[in-house]
Design brief:
By secondary structure, this protein is mainly α. It has helices at about 40-50, 70-80, 80-85, 85-100, 115-125, 130-150, 175-185, 190-200, 205-210, 245-250, 270-285, 290-305, 310-315, 320-345; strands at about 10, 20, 30, 215-220, 220-225, 235-240, 360, 365. Helix 4 (about 85-100) packs across helix 6, helix 8 (about 190-200) packs antiparallel against helix 10 (about 245-250) and helix 12 (about 290-305) packs parallel to helix 14. The longest helix has 27 residues, at about 320-345. Residues about 55-60 and about 350-378 have low confidence and may be disordered.
Length: about 375
């Protein structure tokens, strides 16, 4: 009777010689002595069949190849440069670098062979997600900055990589109508209204809003250190609590340590507050609005009221005017345009009974605070 065995394949060379192999799917071929059915053949077959299902040379899960990009990232995670970062920044940056390493096994490739063109190619593959692409470039810059600082490499291939053009205006800045729509949905005395007022009248990030409490109030001022970069470049802030904000705080339920608390009377986490505020906006029909957009709206309002960049930075806590300029670009343009056209109007004795621009609201920002909803302050 003819013997039938699994995983036997036959190859015939150019001389017509038949070679026998044992080949399990996904594994390399193992040469068997012939002819088929002989004692030597059966001995080789049993030895091959008893071997490991996974090749001995198979890569181990989680291994780090010496001199690889992933290996460099692991060294970076252990460095002071990385460990001094805010925990949230660490988490985000590590996730970005892990994705880069997993993409087409890029993490196993030698980091000394990584060139700018390789990074640009990966960046261009992410053109549908420009902010994610830019985040990847930024993260790689920091990894190779670490490599150069510790004499592991002599150049930074990500340093000259251009950022993709994303949304130049960033988060949507709330308009007055949107603020009013939110207020009509969430009355004074609710956590939602308190959250809106804290964000709008302090201009702070959500990581700071969730920590504000009675212990930060001193003689009518909020005194605190901003959460962002608090371990590396701390920014100490003192902001006056204006009457409309104080009235909202006094009329709202608050916690023992924080003004804003969950339904279980516990302080919010930054992410938890962001999710909760997202629901409050959805309830008000404001799908395009976010808590960060209120920070931007506060800066834009200050710009429209004639505040200088330095004055706005004293509220937002920015160290440079670059981000403030991006926040207030539209408001500054409108204010300058109004001033210019009014001077031209006065110079030409134009009919002053017809205003050139609405003195209250134009483009969703405030130009006359005394006419904003019952003399509201900002």
């Amino acid at each position: 009777m003819k013997m039938r065995l699994k995983y036997i394949v036959e190859d015939t060379d150019r001389h017509g010689t038949v070679r026998l192999y044992y080949r399990r799917p996904g594994e390399p071929k193992i040469r068997l002595r012939g002819p088929s059915g002989s004692a030597e053949f059966l001995t080789d077959y049993r030895r091959a069949a008893a071997g490991p299902a996974i090749p001995r040379t198979a890569p181990k899960i989680g291994r780090v190849v010496k001199g690889s990009i992933k290996g460099l990232c692991v060294d970076y995670y252990k460095s002071a440069m990385f460990r001094e970062l805010d925990p949230r920044t660490q988490k985000v940056r590590r996730a970005i670098l892990e994705r880069f390493c997993q993409h087409k096994s890029d993490g196993d490739k030698p980091y000394r062979m990584l060139l700018p063109r390789h990074i640009r190619t990966r960046r261009d593959e992410m053109m549908d997600r420009p902010e994610a692409a830019n985040g990847m470039v930024k993260a790689l810059r920091q990894v190779f900055k670490f490599a150069m600082r510790y004499d592991l490499h002599d150049s930074n291939p990500a340093l000259g990589i251009e950022y993709l053009s994303g949304n130049a205006d960033g988060f949507h800045s709330w308009t007055l109508d949107e603020i009013e729509q939110f207020e009509n949905t969430h009355a004074v005395g609710t956590s939602a209204r308190l959250a809106l007022s804290l964000a709008l009248y302090t201009g702070q990030r959500r990581a700071d809003l969730v920590t504000f409490g009675k212990q930060h109030v001193r003689d009518g001022w909020l005194s605190f250190t901003q959460h962002k970069n608090r371990n590396s470049k701390p920014v100490r802030m003192e902001i006056p609590i204006i009457p409309v904000l104080q009235q909202t705080i006094d009329a709202s339920p608050t916690g023992d340590l924080t003004f804003l608390v969950t339904a279980f009377n516990r302080p919010f986490t930054s992410n938890g507050f962001g999710n909760r505020f997202r629901k409050w906006c959805d309830e008000a029909g404001l799908k395009n609005c976010s808590v960060h957009g209120l920070r931007k709206a506060a800066a834009a309002r200050l710009a429209e009221l004639g505040c200088t960049e330095q004055e706005i930075m004293a509220i937002t806590g920015h160290r440079t005017s670059k981000e403030v300029t991006r926040y207030t670009r539209a408001a500054s343009q409108k204010t300058r345009a109004e001033s210019a056209l009014r001077r031209m109007s006065d110079g030409q004795n134009m009919n002053k009974s017809v205003p050139l621009l609405d003195p209250v609201v134009e483009g969703g920002t405030i130009s006359n605070p005394n006419k904003l909803k019952g003399n509201r302050e900002i």
